[in-house]
Write a structure and sequence with these properties.
The protein is α/β, with parallel strands linked by helices and 438 residues long. The protein is 43% helix and 13% strand. The protein has 17 helices and 14 strands. α1 crosses α3, α9 packs across α11 and α9 packs parallel to α12.
Length: 438
């Protein structure tokens, strides 16, 4: 199959590379000249483990190409995937569909042979029908079908998720589009991956509903963590106790500083906005959004309280600022709320993150950046763990304690145990672990 992938951002690049590894001929169209030149040099503009190796392999074997020329990419293509950005719109939080509709318009002006136009970008319900309307307006006689194929990739595990998905969701309106997508995803049939075929609206809603449900699980366990802290409970044991119930499951029941990243914040906002627009309010989701935002602010207060209620003039060492480990993504990371609040309270911030510096230096002005966690901790009044990178999971706590000026270790991811931290001479502050009542 010949595939055109419009947009070589996170979703487009991962999808294009993986499709080419399936054996398809893939041309990725990237309008950003600087990014395109990086890709043509063999450089990957994002951090995703293993993506560079897979990209180099498929370029070398002639199945993967990068261009700015959409017309050449569309020539004789069986399918064109729209994988452009849909950022949250300022003001109302709704998904900004400008790039999706601009791409649809350009496709409509350029297609010359029958083709399936597949929306890979995360879009609100109703978007694919508008894409079809735009293309038809450009060429009323054009032979095309529109399909929805939402992505379910986790940053840091995207290749594994694409190659071994829980399911593939395709929304279609006719058998021709279904057959093309079945052929594209046929390599996954060897693993008996479920392929769920729905209409366009159902596929669009599945994507938002999945992310909103996971965001709700995170927010739920964070509120339970608050209850544990004031009653003497242990949120990790609570999460295990409820997660062992097969109806609930243990994933996304890890208490922490709140969710962030490129998906959950904007997708929950977009779903809530769709609910308001269609007169079907998503009250639970709207509450999740509010609680999660408050959660991030509460974490800065928690850190200040651990520093005896005062951080003015104190040095806070911070381990991890990306929204999750194994990514360089800083979008809506909890650190972007927590650290500015500490700086406003007078703290000096010193940061160590394996991949966050490139974006973080622009987003967290005034902070000092170090490459080594022990250097970051030296002479610090407190040490805060925000992102649970593997590099921070097995630190020499005695070495940390001996180098710090203060003794507070605030672990917002619960990767250490109170006993081992106390044995090293540090005072441990965790999330959702209260002191038992007398």
């Amino acid at each position: 199959m010949k595939i055109a992938m419009i947009g070589a951002g996170y979703v487009g690049l991962v999808s294009g590379v993986c499709f080419s590894d399936f054996g398809h001929q893939v041309v990725c169209v990237e309008k950003n000249t600087a990014k395109l030149e990086m890709l043509q040099r063999g450089e990957v503009p994002i951090y995703e483990p293993g993506l560079d190796i897979l990209m180099h392999k498929n370029v070398a074997e002639g199945r993967l190409h990068f261009t700015q020329d959409m017309a050449s990419a569309l020539k004789d293509a069986d399918a064109v995937f729209i994988a452009v950005g849909t950022p949250a719109r300022r003001g109302d939080g709704f998904a900004d569909l400008t790039y999706v509709y601009e791409t649809a318009r350009e496709i409509g002006e350029l297609i010359t042979t029958p083709i399936v136009v597949v929306t890979k970008s995360t879009v609100p319900v109703g978007t694919n029908r508008e894409v079809a309307r735009i293309i038809s307006a450009c060429q009323p006689a054009a032979a095309f079908s529109v399909a929805s194929n939402p992505e379910f990739l986790r940053e840091g595990s995207a290749i594994e998720d694409f190659m071994h998905p829980d399911r593939v969701v395709v929304g279609v309106e006719n058998s021709d589009a279904e057959e093309v997508l079945r052929r594209i995803y046929r390599p996954l049939s060897l693993r008996e991956t479920p392929l769920l075929v729905t209409n366009l609206e159902t596929a669009e809603i599945i994507k938002y509903a999945a992310n909103a449900f996971l965001a709700t699980k995170i927010t739920f366990i964070n509120e339970i963590a608050n209850l544990c802290e004031v009653t003497g409970g242990d949120v990790q044991q609570v999460a295990k106790g409820i997660g062992l119930d097969g109806r609930i499951g243990g994933k996304f029941l890890h208490a922490g500083p709140g969710y962030g990243g490129s998906c959950f914040p904007k997708d929950t906002q977009a779903l809530a906005q769709s609910g308001r627009e269609y007169g079907a309010p998503q009250t639970i989701v709207e509450t999740v959004i509010k609680v999660n935002e408050a959660r991030k602010h509460d974490m800065s207060s928690k850190i200040i309280a651990a520093c005896d209620g005062e951080v003015d003039g104190k040095t806070i060492a911070v381990l991890g600022v990306t929204f999750k480990p194994n990514t360089d993504d800083m979008r809506d990371a909890p650190s972007l709320t927590i650290l500015p609040a500490l700086q406003q309270a007078g703290a000096k911030i010193r940061i160590c993150d394996p991949q966050g510096r490139r974006e973080g230096e622009k987003l967290l002005p005034g902070a000092d950046w170090l490459d080594d966690p022990y250097d970051a901790a030296t002479a610090a009044d407190a040490l805060v763990i925000i992102t649970e990178w593997n590099a921070f999971r097995g630190l020499d706590l005695e070495r940390i304690a001996s180098s710090m000026r203060g003794s507070a270790l605030i672990d917002l991811r619960n990767i250490y145990h109170r006993d081992e931290v106390s044995a090293a001479g540090l005072t441990y502050f965790a999330v959702g672990k209260g002191v038992p009542q007398a």
